[in-house]
Amino acid sequence: MEFFDRAETWDRAVIEAAQVVRLRNTVEQAGRCAFYAERFAEAKVTAADIRTPDDIRRIPFTTKDDLRSQYPEGLLCVPRDEIVRMHSSSGTTGTPVAICHTRNDLNSWADLMARSMYMAGVRRSDVFQNMSGYGLFTGGLGIHAGAERLGCMTIPAGAGNTLRQIKLVKDFRTTVIHIIPSYALVLANTLRENGEDPSALPLRIALIGAEPHSKETRQRVEEALGVTAYNSFGLSEMNGPGVAFECQEQNGLHVWEDAYLVEIIDPDTGEYVAEGELGELVLSTLCRVGMPILRYRTRDLTRFLPGNCACGRMHRRIDRIQGRTDDMFIIKGVNIYPMQIEHVIMGRPEVGQNYLIVLENEGPKEDIKIKVEIRDEYFVEDMRALQGLQQKIARRLQSEILVTPKVELVQPNSLPTSEGKATRVLDLREK
Ligand code: AMP
Ligand code: ZN
Questions:
Q1: Please, which residues have CB less than 5 A from ligand 2, an ion?
Q2: Nearest CA to 371 among 330, 395, 406?
Q3: What is the mean pLDDT of each run of 10 residues along the chain (431 residues)?
Q4: Is cis: bond before 72, omega within 30 of 0?
Q5: CA 240 – ligand 1 centroid, Å
Q6: What distance lies between CA 394 and its chain's CA centroid?
Q7: Are 338 and 327 a contacting pair, CB within 8 Å?
Q8: Exposed/middle/buried for 160, CB within 10 Å: 0-12, 13-18, 19+?
Q9: Parallel/antiparallel/unpaired status of strands 83-88 and 260-265
């Protein structure tokens, strides 16, 4: 087994020993801003109280609203002239969240990103094309820095302009891409429409992340682009990509526990869930100096995977993200996550590359309508076949989400697409 970084070979005892030292330093460092200094004083906790990783439980949670309340620079823990970059979270409503990095913060982020890519099989001989948006979004510059650190020839293509992407892939013999999964399906459609044979392209690996996606979607990306696709998880509050990543086993994402302390809690009680149960991911930075964040409630839902990974790394694995606590919607009294729907739809061969969940109401009567793109070859089928398909999909969905949705089959490429994170739910209900 090849490793990029010594920390990948650490056993649990070494990981935990490093966590204690780093957590203590982080508490010390975070206490340099008024927000955390007050929090620690209220909780009567100091750096010296941290003796085991479990002592993190003495520290209060940090929420998105806390970060918003400190926008733009309330959480700075170094003099301002030590900051060399800021990034911001993609939330579209309300006050944004800004994260500021020192030179060392950026260096350790690039190291984590390079380590993640190496773990997925990327080597310096690869040509890497970053098909995600640059700018404030961390999937641009964050992954870019990792690829350069690894030594890949790096093409900052950015998102969109799909025909140009394909030209770049061919002209520069791109072997590895980073792409948001919903945009990967748009790329797949364009390849198909242009009669391109994906197996004739030089691509071999896709790093996909930044939004929830089902394993069925991953499989589609792999088949349509002729690649092996690895799940990349991260969030701006914890730098961005490079927090947790799949290894070549493709069975869960290793969290880099030398850089992040990971907990999973019941979102209602704040207590730890039982081992292996689904809960809200809570993360703390262990190496960040510019803006350390402790016990951040991500709202992302996942579980720890049991046992050791065959790759040999002892960094614990989390399951793919099942959704976000704020993604959930309630229809006819039933709680539903978009991923439950995606899992059913993307598993069907007749279905094309896009779908949209529409919530509507007429007075007190609520409806869930699912618009599903159907592949060209099925659209020419007769009415009866289409109706049969519609019913089949509705029945499968009903058994998954427990309410009967209206299913509307639509033509390929008729639903809105996005180069950034996809919007899967359109809530038209009058409140
Ligand atoms: P942002 O900081 O704006 O890039 O958004 C981060 C959020 O994107 C995370 O909290 C997750 O909800 C989502 N996200 C990022 N990567 C993944 C992934 N691999 N799978 C599912 N959701 C993801
Ligand atoms: Zn592994």
A1: 247, 249, 309, 311, 313
A2: 406
A3: 94 98 98 98 98 98 96 97 92 82 98 98 98 95 98 97 97 98 95 93 98 96 97 98 98 98 98 97 98 98 97 98 93 94 95 96 92 90 89 96 95 91 93 74
A4: yes
A5: 8
A6: 28
A7: yes
A8: middle
A9: unpaired
Pocket test for ligand 1, best of 67, 88, 180, 235 (most atoms within 8 A of CB): 235
In the numeric block, which tokens belong to residue 224? Answer: 């349509």
C-alpha span between 223 and 268 (Å, rounded): 39
Distance between Cα 428 and ligand 2 center (Å)? 42
Write the CB contacts of 44 (distance below 8 Å, at least 6 apart in sequence): none
In this structure, is the dihedral angle defined by the CA atoms of residues 7, 8, 9 and 10, taken in order, positive or negative?
positive
Give this prediction's pTM: 0.96
Q: Within 10 Å of residue 371's Cβ, how many Cβ atoms?
A: 17
Q: Which of 67, 281, 300, 326 to mutate to test the pocket of ligand 1 (most atoms within 8 A of CB)?
A: 300
Residue closest via CA to ligand 1's atom 6 equals: 235
Residues with CB under 6 A from ligand 1: 89-90, 138, 209-212, 231-236, 298, 300, 321, 324
The token pair that represents 159 in the structure block: 């998102």
- The pLDDT, as a whole number, for residue 431 is 74
> Ligand 1: which residue has its CA nearest to atom 4?
235
